Amino acid sequence: MSESGRTPLLQAKNLRLGHRTGRTREFVVAIDSIDLTIDTGEFISVVGPSGCGKTTFLEAVAGLVPVASGDLLVNGTPIKGPARNRAIVFQSASLFPWRTVEQNVWFGLEVQGRLDEAARQRTRQLLHTVGLEKYMKARPDELSGGMRQRVNLARALAVSPDVLLFDEPFGALDAMTRESLQDELLRIWQADPDGPKTTAVFITHDVTESVLLSDRVIVLSRNPGRIVADVAIKAPRPRTSAQWRLDPKFTEYCSEILDALHPEQKAARQSVTATSTESSV
Ligand SMILES: Nc1ncnc2c1ncn2[C@@H]1O[C@H](COP(=O)(O)OP(=O)(O)OP(=O)(O)O)[C@@H](O)[C@H]1O
Asked: Which end of the chain is more exposed for a tag (fewer CB within 10 A), N or C?
């Protein structure tokens, strides 16, 4: 059990990650000496400068990048490779163009040999949740970028993973679509009255997005990535986007995270009286 009394879903202990590159296969460190515990049901965002190792961390949790040293555990078990209990939502929706929307959503269940009536029912329910039930029979090329990303999200949720990994899922969308999908994700995440069963690790460059969605925001330093701040976002759930964005505490959290990201700019930021909350790393 962790301090919160909840079961740790994910644990990193003195974790070091990197990549072998070039002809000499030289090891380049991406993440260094990270200690992190994530509880079941928590929504965690990871922010940090470009190249600090956010994607590398996510890929290691997905089992796509090996652990160089230290430990990386899911449910107390070392991660050795990809597994059913972890699903990724990438920046660009990687849908099969020849399959309909519903066939894309139930793809993971089909691969697992679980495509029964309950799976079809779950698919319909998820498409209703993401507002796409009318498009069940459509092909991906008939959808907008935002709609495709909704299908992507429904597909990841369909396999009921223990942990859902988001690699800047809204990064390629225009500002309005991004905001509406952020609101939607917030709603979906809080839809279960017993609390979310899925744990989320969400990579983003957008500080406001991290504060909007998360229970905690982890701030990484420049390459190699080390944790420089772990900010608990104490906003009650269910929270609504419109209400939470206008709360003065929302701006305070954004400033705290920006200060951790760019300590050299802290004094300049404090001298600006009217600060904008639309901030990217
Ligand atoms: N496949 C790879 N082979 C070699 N080096 C890599 C590979 N992928 C990433 N790196 C290096 O590892 C470091 C961390 O990269 P990573 O993509 O994890 O950072 P990031 O924080 O996600 O960056 P960004 O925000 O720009 O997406 C960088 O120095 C990068 O050049």
From this structure: N
